[in-house]
Amino acid sequence: MKLVEVEGSHVIQNLYDSFDVHVGQSLSILVTLDQSPKDYYIVASTRFTTTVLTSTSVLHYTNSQTPVSGPVPAGPVNQFQWSLMQARTIRWNLTSNAARPNPQGSFHYGKITPSRTILLANSAPLINGKQRYAVNGISYIHPDTPLKLADHFNIPGVFTLDSIRSAPTADSPHLATAVLPSSLHEFLEIVFQNNEDTMQSWHLDGYDFWVVGFGSGTWTQASRKGYNLVDALTRHTTQVYPKSWTAIFVSLDNQGMWNLRSAMWDRQYLGQQAYLRVYNPTSSLANEYDIPTNALLCGKADALRHP
């Protein structure tokens, strides 16, 4: 399998016998049909799960006279370190002529010092006797008013900008509407710290980001020595291995209220998410269009239409 594209980025075209695709991710591969004409298995199987699920299809040459036979090839099981090493081989193709996240070539991500670091740790606490999932001890709950409406119309009592810390704390886990404040055109380092013995997958709406580092154990400032500051991949969803961390750089050039969440539905639904408020106090159509005049208003925003 020749890898040629990952979530909109052209990559170095490495060859793989098997390839890990984590929850929420997408990619393109090319397969050259240069084998003897017959039928071949194509197998997709889960990894890092207690029960291994397998889906099988058949690649059929039009002049094949030989059906598939024998057992279905077994997929690789566990091998977290092997998977992490494979992830490091996925690199940006710097010779590609496709558009970049900065198509004007105005900057290179590896030459910019991030304005600050946000360290996000996932967890699986019991809150009020029920299973929840959390980010820095905050298990997200949806407000009755959409955050974008509350922010646009300055509606109080919907969210606060101190609802979640930018690093883990020793506070007891609790429910809240978690919103992280940030400024338009900030350049952030975000570290996903996974202290659980589970595979994680994180997605950020509204952005691509550079996945600059993976590592085992606990992230420290010394971990930056292992970052890829040359040809790291840009994508919108990244994996975080058990008892490990993943670091990304992101240029906040898209104003708005953006969801940062687990790509795993059960964890997202039960609170492993937060919002990143990318804000500029000066209103400008160059940064963000106005909300349409016919937009549906609900929650506390409904009072603006029916005072």
Automatic annotation (TrEMBL):
Pfam (any one): Cu-oxidase
Sorted UniProt keywords: Glycoprotein
Top-level taxon of origin: Eukaryota
Organism: Solanum tuberosum (Potato)
Name the UniProt record assigns to this protein: Multicopper oxidase
Family (UniProt): Belongs to the multicopper oxidase family.
Span of domain Plastocyanin-like: 1-63, 144-281
Record keyword Glycoprotein present: yes
MF GO annotations: copper ion binding; oxidoreductase activity
